[in-house]
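Dear Dr. K.,

Following up on our conversation at the group meeting, I've run the structure prediction for Acyl-CoA acyltransferase from Bradyrhizobium neotropicale. I'm pasting the input sequence below exactly as I used it, so you can double-check it against your construct before we proceed with anything downstream. Let me know if the numbering doesn't match what you have in your notebook.
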Amino acid sequence: MIHTKVRCREITESDVEAIADLLTRGFVGRSRNYWIQGLRRQAFRPVPEGYPRFGYMLDDNGTPVGVLLLIYTARKIGEETAIQCNLSSWYVDPAYRNYAPLLTKIAQRHKDVTYLNISPAVWTWPIIETQGFRAYSGGMFFSVPALTRPPRWSKIEVISPHAKQIEGLSEDETELLRRHARYNCLSVVCRTPQGTFPFILQAVRIRRGFVAPPAMRLIYCRDTAEYVACAGRIGRLLLRLGKVSVIVDSNGPIRGLVGIYSDRRGRKYFKGPHRPQLADLTDTELVLYGP
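The predicted structure tokens came back this morning:
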């Protein structure tokens, strides 16, 4: 079949309902409400000037037939403001697959942007690498933080979506924790004699056959060493919430933590000028759309 009116264009707010229908059709197991919630979050979040709010679509005479969601974020790297783009959900109706390269080409055209692919299927890893992407996280460490001794004279605080300025944190970090609390993440601050350390965690379900152990994913910390230092205190809080494990992006076993490292899944890729920081998945598809 020849589609003479297919074009690639930016997704607008008026396209959201139709894009949700397309994604629901393309991703078995994801409800329409899942996509609507994430698209609404994208609609209201700040986006760096000059970049698309939602991403791009293939348009056949007004009907969406393909989509690539993009999540742009401005990040401070030293004194520089860098632009990061999470290449999120991609789907093209089978009859239009020959137009799919239009989406990927336009989505990755900015040489000064760092592009992330944080949820690639294992079978796509070789394909992604041929496109110039490099792995920055080789796998995941499944830690059991409650088995680590908590730091002496420490305490932990849960941060609400409406918290005021948090003592010991910058305004930017305070807003980061508040914002992710609104995204149904668990934002906490661990206070020790060595300082005040922010963390963001997200509930996940790890399914292996009939077993689905309750776990959390570490979405944010300044440095993995800070998580190691505060793991015991975090672990005791999580036990009260019925959670046992915390998944940490890593490139091998993490010294000072009890757990298991696996490189069979969880690889994360980037392409561009700035290598992403481990344990920083803030404002990505994982929090905007959910696990």
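Two things stood out to me. The mean pLDDT is 92. Residues 89 and 233 are 35 Å apart (CA to CA).

Best regards,
J.T.
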